[in-house]
Amino acid sequence: MVTYKVLLDTRRVKSDGTYAVQIIITYNRTTSTVNTGVFIKEKFWNKEQLNVSPSHPNAQLLNRNDCLLTF
């Protein structure tokens, strides 16, 4: 069974104060991390729902499942 989780990688900050949105994929107890190419500030990340908060200007586009999962 394959599971995935979308996370904000707060370990590495860019010079403009943004963080990378990554997807953690687990299959047969093996995990892989995929960078989505999306960078947002931490204040726009919803930690409870693990998505972009509605206060972000492009929240609807970024929260679509097919937007982040095209890699």
From TrEMBL:
Arm DNA-binding domain mapped to chain residues: 6-64
InterPro entries (alphabetical): Arm-DNA-bind_5
Domain of life: Bacteria
Pfam families from the UniProt entry: Arm-DNA-bind_5
Name the record gives this protein: Arm DNA-binding domain-containing protein
Organism of provenance: Mucilaginibacter defluvii
